[in-house]
Design brief:
Layout (H helix, E strand, L loop, with lengths): L11 E7 L8 E7 L17 H14 L2 E7 L1 H7 L1 H14 L7 E5 L11 E4 L7 H24 L5 H4 L5 H10 L24
Parallel strand pairs: 1-4, 4-5
Antiparallel strand pairs: 1-2, 2-3
């Protein structure tokens, strides 16, 4: 059973991101504040849930949250500031959009940068320990998957509908055959043997 609160603050916000290890597409973060009495037996770390259950949970989370926000950070920004900073930036952007303003932040993982003097705690595997982080992980994952399904229509040869931009064998083979797109992260090692490859961008 996941815990409801870490800090006992009135408006404790949970935040998480999805897509950090992908070769293409945005890194997507979500942040939210759940009511103190929120309970859901199904909710867990999004990686532990089936796609069907994530899709089932998303409207439940959105309807019950006091507030929530989702932010995509595009590959050009990821390439510019690196994936760790982009992930933190995405979470910070989400938190800034929340109303009411949280008075405590719990973050999945071990890295974060303070925002507007709001106290925070980083929690390793927080998405499998606290309801608000688990809920944020579900929103981040479902919104990012939706985004990847949309851009799949533009470049179906990479099969992003299936691999969501992760470095699968099929995705890397498509990069080898077709080059890169505006959605690829050029600062990432797109091919295992990559040293310096001049790709033609679509």
């Amino acid at each position: 059973m996941l815990l409801t609160s870490y800090s006992n603050s009135t408006f404790e916000c949970g935040t998480d991101e999805a897509g950090r290890g992908c070769l293409a597409g945005p890194v997507t973060a979500a942040a939210l504040i759940l009511p103190e009495n929120f309970i859901n037996e199904l909710l867990n770390d999004s990686k532990q849930l089936s796609e069907k259950n994530r899709d089932l949970l998303r409207p439940i989370i959105e309807e019950n949250a006091l507030c929530f926000s989702v932010t995509h950070i595009e590959p050009t920004i990821i390439d510019e500031i690196n994936i760790l900073n982009a992930s933190i930036h995405a979470m910070q952007c989400c938190i800034k959009k929340l109303s009411p303003t949280p008075n405590y932040i719990i973050v999945d993982g071990n890295r974060f940068k303070p925002i507007e003097n709001i106290p925070h705690s980083c929690i390793i595997k927080g998405d499998s320990k606290y309801l608000s982080i688990a809920a944020a992980s579900v929103l981040a994952k479902t919104y990012r998957d939706e985004y990847m399904n949309q851009i799949h229509e533009e470049f179906p040869m990479y099969n992003w509908k299936q691999n969501k931009g992760y470095p699968t064998k099929e995705h890397r083979e498509a990069i080898r055959n077709y080059g890169t797109t505006k959605y690829h992260r050029m600062s990432f090692r797109l091919l295992p043997e990559q040293l310096e490859i001049d790709f033609q961008e679509f």
